[in-house]
């Protein structure tokens, strides 16, 4: 899968839409810098990258849910222990505010025992926080305290109506807990400071959830609804190098039986009816949607390798979220300048650009 210049442009347009969805995370100066970065990739194709625009920190692999599509904690060979608060704070001090945005995920970041203290410290260093949560471990008090810290973006998972959400989360009562968390956030957040987004992952069996989730998002009064295309691989793709761990692998018969055209028609209807308050990520045209579910995926280059620093719970830097078992540096002790443009990382960026890895074909970051 060779990533041509048009493929890179498609990835850039898709990520620009994502930046709009997550508005408030970056200053105008950083967004203008990202625009200039596109020209730099074309002019200096040697794999070097400027300072990261964001940290994607898988803060903990702990999670009370058992989501059927999880591409992180359930697929890892072994969970990585999280950092104690003093080491987490020291790591933030090493990287922030040089890197202006910290995205906290997991696992379930609200399961990290010091989450509120960590968010407060990130803010004290002048960075902005993007937190992704299932909402099921929050409760009224923690929702209020989190809103007091004013993360720039709060994204809560909502995967369908009550029965569908609970089935996909793998735990009865998950829907009610998530809705209660969203309602508490709505009571306490300052909408000028915190953007509230719902996220719903869409796979081969989820066409019927689009309209119910869109109505729920409207009724709950959130700022935006994001439908994320399911990241998965077919068995033959999962055997290719570099090996993607973790990654969801779907049987060929399940993928081949999928009515992608029916999904396409429903997606376009949702876009017409609900407008700009609903976004599908990544943005796919009809041919790309067919390739995602009925073909070999996309041929886009990955821009995240150039602008995002990925961290495991233990503070080890990894190339991306799908290469968590291959750390490239200990970010808790190694200076960023010593490894961010190291020869092996530059070679990895260029290799992916020249021939996109199989794991990139259906990744939400393209």
Structural class by SSE content: alpha/beta
Instruction: Give the terminus-to-terminus CA distance.
Output: 14 Å
| Unreliable runs | 39-43
Largest sheet entry: 10 strands, mixed
The radius of gyration computed from the alpha-carbon positions, rounded to a whole number of angstroms, is 19 Å
What is the 3D shape?
globular
**Percent of residues in β-strands:** 5-15%
Total helix count? 14
In which order are the strands of the major sheet placed?
A: 7-6-5-4-3-2-1-8-9-10
Task: Give the SSE string.
Answer: HHEHEHEHEHHEHEHHHEHHEEEH
Number of strands: 10
Verbal overview:
With 366 residues, the protein is α/β, with parallel strands linked by helices. The chain has 14 helices and ten strands. It has a ten-stranded mixed beta sheet with strand order 7-6-5-4-3-2-1-8-9-10, with helices on both faces. Helix 3 runs parallel beside helix 4 (115-124) and helix 5 crosses helix 7. The longest helix has 17 residues, at 5-21. It is globular, with a radius of gyration of 19 Å.
């Amino acid at each position: 899968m060779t990533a041509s210049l048009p493929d890179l442009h498609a990835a850039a347009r898709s990520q620009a839409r994502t930046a709009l969805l997550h508005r408030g995370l970056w200053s105008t100066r950083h967004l203008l810098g990202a625009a200039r970065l596109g020209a730099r990739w074309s002019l200096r194709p040697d794999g070097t990258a400027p300072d990261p625009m964001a940290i994607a920190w898988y803060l903990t692999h702990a999670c009370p849910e058992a989501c059927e599509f999880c591409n992180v904690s359930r697929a890892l060979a072994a969970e990585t222990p999280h950092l104690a608060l003093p080491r987490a704070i020291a790591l933030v001090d090493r990287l922030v505010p040089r890197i202006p945005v910290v995205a906290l995920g997991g696992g379930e970041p609200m399961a990290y025992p010091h989450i509120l203290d960590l968010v407060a410290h990130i803010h004290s260093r002048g960075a902005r926080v993007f937190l992704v949560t299932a909402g099921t471990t929050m409760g009224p008090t923690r929702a209020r305290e989190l809103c007091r810290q004013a993360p720039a973006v709060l994204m809560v998972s909502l995967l369908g109506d009550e029965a569908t959400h609970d089935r996909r989360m793998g735990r009865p009562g998950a829907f009610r807990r998530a809705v209660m968390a969203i309602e508490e956030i709505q009571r306490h957040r300052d909408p000028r400071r915190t953007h509230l987004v719902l996220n719903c992952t869409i796979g081969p069996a989820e066409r019927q959830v689009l309209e119910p989730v869109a109505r729920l998002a409207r009724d709950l009064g959130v700022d935006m609804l994001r439908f994320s295309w399911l990241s998965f691989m077919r068995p033959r793709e999962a055997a290719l190098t570099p090996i993607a761990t973790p990654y969801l692998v779907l049987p060929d018969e399940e993928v081949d039986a999928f009515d992608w055209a029916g999904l396409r028609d429903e997606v376009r209807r949702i876009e017409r009816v609900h407008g700009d308050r609903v976004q599908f990520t990544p943005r796919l045209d009809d041919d790309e949607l067919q390739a995602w579910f009925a073909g070999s995926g996309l041929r886009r280059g990955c821009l995240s390798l150039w602008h995002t620093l990925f961290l495991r719970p233990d503070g080890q830097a990894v190339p991306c979220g799908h290469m968590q078992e291959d750390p490239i540096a200990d970010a808790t002790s190694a200076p960023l300048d010593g490894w961010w443009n190291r020869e092996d990382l530059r070679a990895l960026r260029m290799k992916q650009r020249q021939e996109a890895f199989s794991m990139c074909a259906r990744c939400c970051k393209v």
